[in-house]
Write a structure and sequence with these properties.
The protein is of the alpha/beta class. It folds into 2 domains: 418 residues, Amino acid/polyamine transporter I (Up-down Bundle); 170 residues, no CATH class. Helix content is 61%, strand content 10%. The radius of gyration is 28 Å and the shape is elongated.
């Protein structure tokens, strides 16, 4: 090779090394965020499944092989194939998650198609199930870790619940400070957790390699065939191994699909498989040792350090689901499914980027209620799987709809997604056997939120129609101020309104009552795109509608937090909206009086909507407008 060729080759090699290094860093970072939930499942999954297969505390070798095989193939089919390979292809401009799918379904066009409207409703139900999952995950994860104290110190059993409560209270308390100060540790800690879990499992397998027969799927099929009425219950227990799989899709936008797949197939999946097989090997040797096969894999001298590591790992799993709830709430607000709430941006990068106080304390109440009410991870196992399995059914349904909308071959879509849907429905049927044993708890949370979301959306639609009725048409408004001119003040009035139609009531009321108007007026409507982000060059569209009057549409993606002042200031260089820093912002302070006289909602739901509207964050604060520049005009609506 010539010297010139060597020089050309060197930069290419260096680029590949840098690329591989960057991929490794992102894969490590995503390990703590994406795999926290599924990575801590070995603490309780096999124990829960085996307990459901045993009535006297002992389990047969056929049951052990069948359950381990069922767990293994669930990880391969549901997580590796469905989520890591298939579902992650249904991205919305790189973003994933149930609300990204919902945006792809396009709620704004729901009225044009009954099937699309049904998908919107189903998607909303799926979104609310994540809140139910968010209350159970921290409870069962931390409880299962702390319960390790009881193995060699049974007298510590009474301290498990109080210690769990203390840890969870501390976790929810630190949320308002952001989590970036510990976020950097999440990936390395979870990497250590996976390595140690895999090593423990490998030692168990080496002591009884007969467990490797569980690699054969017929071990699971044969056991379930002969299990009779126990089959569904056992499947429900084994399903806990795949809870957390939805994080693959939900967090795809933060890290990208490739790092998630690399971390899963390279580290997480091998470690989980080794650990589950190691636990199974232990149960083959000790059929009656069902208390905690995970901790029983470790030598006694390593037990308490392992409890500490497990506790840290479960706190990471809890933090991931809590952060996901914040992010989903922000998206739901942007898409118009929830009222405006206080959303605080912290200094985090990968996780903890936003903090929603109301959601934080609502999750805290739900989680602590679950810990104190159920009291053990075994009792919570029944409550855990129902919401997640139903969410998986919904995800498959919506992904199928999107794939057909994208014109993929219908035969392939129906064959592949139909098979996965059948498996999801089987899991849902199996977890539903625990409905009365706690499965009702996350479903109740989801039911309440899934009732509030359409109430808010329908109420806002009614209000929009009412606002249009009451607003003056712009030509009429201009004619009125020409016939009876108000006193014109120097400067610019920026008038916020939900729609780019007519004259917002805040401005017309002010002109009517105070007889003053700024020399320059800009009507601003903030809209949310059905994409996660909007490019800066497309952020603001300004049109001249009359001499001294302009309309500005400020666009944001559903993953973005609006900052109207910053967006409008970016137009100053083009001379579109000058003096933004000195402008007066007109906003309406709306008071809703339910009357039940208008078609749309019964009076009691109107009252609920009025309560939600009253407690929503003020527009000025939500859109990041300096308080000193806001002029609020009070307006009453009787609906």
């Amino acid at each position: 090779m010539s010297a010139a060729a060597k020089m050309d080759a060197a930069p290419a090699g260096a680029r590949k090394k840098r690329s591989a290094h960057a991929l490794g860093q992102v894969a490590l970072a995503c390990m703590g965020v994406v795999f926290g939930d599924i990575g801590t499942s070995p603490l309780y999954t096999l124990n829960a499944a085996v307990q459901s297969a045993s009535s006297d505390g002992h389990v047969t070798p056929e049951a052990v092989l069948g359950i381990v095989s069922l767990i293994f193939w669930s990880l391969i089919i549901v997580i590796s194939f469905k989520y890591a390979i298939l579902i992650m292809r249904a991205d919305n401009h790189g973003e994933g998650g149930i609300l990204a799918l919902l945006a792809l379904v396009s709620p704004r066009r729901a009225k044009q198609n009954r099937l699309r409207a049904a998908m919107v409703v189903i998607g909303l139900i799926g979104a609310t199930l994540l809140y139910g999952d968010g209350t159970i995950t921290p409870a069962i994860s931390v409880l299962s870790a702390i319960e390790g104290l009881k193995i060699y110190a049974p007298q510590m059993g009474h301290a498990v619940v109080p210690l769990t409560v203390i840890i969870l209270v501390g976790l929810f308390l630190i949320q308002r400070h952001g989590t970036s100060f510990i976020g950097g540790l999440f990936g390395p800690v979870m990497l250590a957790w996976f390595i140690i879990s895999g090593v423990l499992g490998l030692t168990g397998i080496m002591k009884d390699p007969a467990i490797l027969a569980a690699l054969n799927p017929f071990a699971a099929i044969s056991y379930l065939w002969h299990a009779g009425s126990l089959a569904l219950v056992v499947i429900g227990g084994a399903f806990l191994a795949v809870t957390g799989g939805e994080a693959f899709y939900a967090d795809m936008g933060h890290f990208g699909p490739l790092p998630i797949r690399v971390a899963w197939f390279g580290v997480a999946l091998p470690a989980l498989v080794l650990n589950y097989f190691g636990q199974g090997a232990l149960l083959l040797r000790h059929p009656g040792g069902l208390d905690s096969p995970f901790y029983a894999l470790a030598p006694q001298w390593a037990h308490y350090p392992l409890v500490v590591l497990a506790t840290i790992a479960t706190v990471i799993a809890s933090q991931s689901i809590i952060s996901g709830a914040y992010s989903m709430t922000q998206q739901a607000i942007s898409l118009g499914f929830l009222p405006r709430m206080t959303v605080i941006h912290t200094e985090g990068r990968e996780i903890g980027q936003v903090y929603v106080p109301f959601v934080n304390w609502a999750l805290a109440i739900g989680t602590l209620t679950a810990v104190i009410g159920f009291g053990s991870s075994e009792a919570l196992a029944g409550a855990y799987g129902v919401a997640v399995s139903l969410l998986m059914v919904i995800t498959t349904l919506m992904a199928t709809f999107v794939a057909l909308h994208w014109k993929h071959n219908p035969l392939i879509v129906y064959a592949v997604n139909g098979s996965l849907l059948a498996l999801d429905l089987l899991f849902f049927a199996s977890t539903s056997t625990k409905l009365l044993d706690g499965g009702w708890f996350p479903l109740l949370i989801a039911l309440v939120i899934s009732f509030l979301m359409p109430t808010w959306r329908k109420g806002e639609a009614m209000m929009d129609a009412f606002r249009i009725e009451l607003r003056e048409r712009l030509p009429d408004f201009l004619d009125n101020i020409r016939r009876d001119p108000p006193y014109r003040l120097p400067g610019t009035a920026i008038v916020l309104g939900r729609m780019a139609k007519g004259v917002p009531l805040a401005l017309s009321h002010n002109v009517k009552c105070n007889r003053v108007l700024q020399e320059q007026v800009v009507f601003v409507a903030v809209t949310t795109a059905e994409a996660p982000y909007v490019a800066d060059e497309d952020r603001v569209v300004v049109t001249q509608v009359a001499d001294g009057f302009k309309r500005a549409e400020v666009r944001y993606g559903f993953m973005e937090q609006p900052n109207v002042t910053k967006a409008l200031a970016s137009t100053a260089a083009r001379g579109l909206i000058p003096d933004v820093a000195q402008s007066v912002y007109y906003t309406g302070h709306e008071t809703i009086i339910p009357s039940g006289q208008r078609a749309g909602l019964p009076k009691w739901r109107e009252s609920l909507f009025a309560f939600m509207h009253h407690n929503a964050q003020r527009p000025g604060a939500y859109f990041k407008i300096p308080a000193a520049q806001i002029l609020e005009i009070g307006i009453e609506f009787e609906i």
